[in-house]
Amino acid sequence: MYETLAMFIDGQWVQGSDGRSEDVLNPATGASLGRLPHASRADLDRALEAARKGFKVWRSTNAYDRAKVMRKAAQLIRDRQEQISQILTLEEGKTIGEARLEVGTTADIIEWMAEEGRRAYGRIIPGRMANVRQMAIKEPVGPCAAFTPWNFPGVTPARKIAGALGAGCSLIIKASEETPGTCIAMVRAFADAGLPAGVLNLVFGVPSEISTYLIGSPVIRKISFTGSIPVGKHLAKMAAEGMKKATMELGGHSPVIVFDDVDPVKVADIAAAGKYRNAGQVCIAPTRFFVHESNYKKFAERFTEIAQGMKLGNGLEASTQMGPMANERRVGAMEAFVGDAKAKGAKVAAGGERHGNAGYFFRPTVLTDVPGDARVLNDEPFGPVAPIMPFKTFDEVIERANALPYGLAAYAFTNSTKTATAVADAVESGMVGVNHLAISLPETPFGGIKESGYGHEGGIEGLEAYLNTKFVTQLGA
User: Fold this and answer.
1) Contact 166, 71 (CB under 8 A)
2) Which end is more exposed in the chain, N or C (fewer Cβ atoms within 10 Å of the end residue's Cβ)?
3) Active-site positions?
4) Listed residue (336, 386, 337) closest to 366, CA to CA
5) Do 151 and 109 lie in a common domain?
6) Are 223 and 245 in contact (CB under 8 A)?
């Protein structure tokens, strides 16, 4: 069921020229799925030259024909949805249902951006004199480099690939070495759809070595990174040295505010489903639950009941409700968060420990009576640990929600239009969901503020990130 592991450079599937490789592990079992080749510097030089040549070909291809290739790739991904979904679950661990949804969304992103690329319009600006013509023209920025994490190995690469290709750019993407098969399958669809050689290149290796080499190359004119805040800051500094455009989608620690005018049981159902999706390994996952004191007890009880009743297991099994963590280090991180919270007085209402003796499973966890200095309230947990705290007043909860340097996503539940408007205005976040959690769609901007990054993927903003604006003023004879 698993993919043949290889890199894709200048239209060819290749192994690394210096023989370096690493194991890709199944997080449900710890067993190896295959050996992944690493790129040498010579391989990266080939990819850079391919991207340089590919850009010349792709930018001169009209937007109508570019869209045809991208739509065909999206359709091939849909045709291969079940196969790619199984690959995704094998290497990342999420349930097969979540994987199918992700693969379908991946195709939607590519198709949407293919069509948006046909609408990368400039504009005519009226001149001050009759014989002056003024134009703002949109042009692709050039060859790009993208770096993606392991938690959404379909959707995250798709955003970067689709944005770059839709704008007319070429791309070198370094997908996660822990979940390479999904991106390989996606790139295979583009190759089979007739994408010209060099337009899309896929490499793997030691992340710091790859990013340093690619970002430092004068060939690359824009980078896009999804990952941690410390790494994002480092890459942004390197990009700044070359005055390269950059999109940074970094960490989050999303507050969820549950007001007193909603049904706490119904909201707990929605919130728990969102929290434990992909074992909590979601950058926009609800992670800090602030519940009005009048609803706190019922909300916490229902949330705990859901956590205790979830079935953990291999994501390929239809009955599994939550799969494993992606790797061993995430299990250790969860143990550290829970241990710190307990030491500072928090109560473990559910979970709080590893599950089983094979694979990387951690029980869905609920923490109550969590003090403000607990790590889980200040550092992104990125796992199935849910701290739940009561609040009294609007001003108090807004101050607590905005207290951290994160600003990626936030959520609120209220039946009051006045409160909904007020909280949406007051919360410091790049994305806000009111009464639901569905904030990530192909046609909407995705991005954060503060230390959660800058720039957007998705929506018209996701295409704009890969375009330059050129002003042309022409004086008639």
Assistant:
1) no
2) C
3) 249, 283
4) 386
5) yes
6) yes
Question: Structurally, how many domains does the chain consist of?
Answer: 2
The model's confidence at residue 190, banded by pLDDT at 50, 70 and 90, is very high
Q: Measure the CA–CA gap between 395 and 433, rounded to whole angstroms.
A: 19
Q: Whole domain around residue 25: which residue ranges? A: 7-250+451-475
Does residue 270 sit in the same domain as residue 236? no
Assigned token pair, 314: 């291999």
CATH code of the domain containing 378 = 3.40.309.10
Token pair 């602030």 in the structure block, residue: 290
- For 144, what's the count of Cα atoms within 13 Å in the CB-facing half-sphere? 32
Tens-place pLDDT, residues 133-165:
999 999 999 999 999 999 999 999 999 999 999
Q: In this structure, are residues 387 and 374 in contact, taking their beta carbons and an 8 Å threshold?
A: yes
User: In this predicted model, what pLDDT tens digit does every residue of 427-439 receive, in sequence order?
Assistant: 999 999 999 999 9
How buried is 471 (Cβ within 10 angstroms: 0-12 exposed, 13-18 middle, 19+ buried)?
exposed
Give the Å distances, CA to CA, from 6 to 16, 101, 201, 227. Answer: 8, 25, 11, 23
Instruction: Indicate whether 197 and 87 sit together in one domain.
Output: yes
